[in-house]
């Protein structure tokens, strides 16, 4: 039976990489997929991972109808075994309904990838609808880490390394500072404790994992002698 699966997590946890791996493995076995994205950092009509993989994709902008696109494709004699949508957090609730309709009415698997919450810890519209409708919601296994070493569960937006809480929900960008450095909007993944305290690596003065904040003493035996 076809399914709607939502692979979610923070920024930088490997979602696009997994999307491209699924695409690679399925196409290697002769399955035909349609790949969609919206507002990828690499530009329109592209799906890119930080591991360097890039693939072409159909840009599913505002007003794009996934169900109509598939019906047209099939009517024209095309084949579709599965659908991948990256940056699905940016989709509208109606577009996610169309994805569910593709699964139920056309019996095509849909694998959606996206971050769950925005820089203010609120659900994106696309992610909210995916959580409501998906047959399965998967949290990615490769966790991103907060500067303190704890699992990063939240996305912070930063300006010059400092967390900001005002601004538009959608600002396309990357982990770290923008290319021009000062004043550029960037993102940093944090654990909830540090997101709540608005404590980024820069504001905490941390150059890397702060080992003394981890409860490692109990796990690592003290050296003998
Ligand atoms: N130089 C590198 N060497 C090994 N792994 C890397 C490197 N750069 C990035 N990664 C991996 O890529 C992941 C980010 O993958 P990506 O698909 O771009 O994430 P997402 O789509 O979730 O934002 C990182 O969590 C890390 O595991
Ligand atoms: C938290 C947050 C993120 N974004 C943008 C920033 C990136 O362009 C994407 C996430 O991409 P990734 O492949 O998962 O790293 O979302 C945003 O617009 N608003 C936010 O609050």
From TrEMBL:
It comes from the Bacteria. Keywords: ATP-binding, DNA synthesis, Kinase, Nucleotide-binding, Transferase. Transmembrane segments: none annotated. Pfam families: TK (PF00265). It catalyses: thymidine + ATP = dTMP + ADP + H(+). One of its GO terms (biological process) is thymidine metabolic process. The keyword ATP-binding applies. The active site is at residue 87. GO terms for molecular function: ATP binding; thymidine kinase activity. Substrate binds at residues 170-173, 187. The keyword Kinase applies. GO terms for cellular component: cytosol. Belongs to the thymidine kinase family. This is Thymidine kinase. The lineage of its organism: Bacteria, Bacillati, Actinomycetota, Actinomycetes, Kitasatosporales.
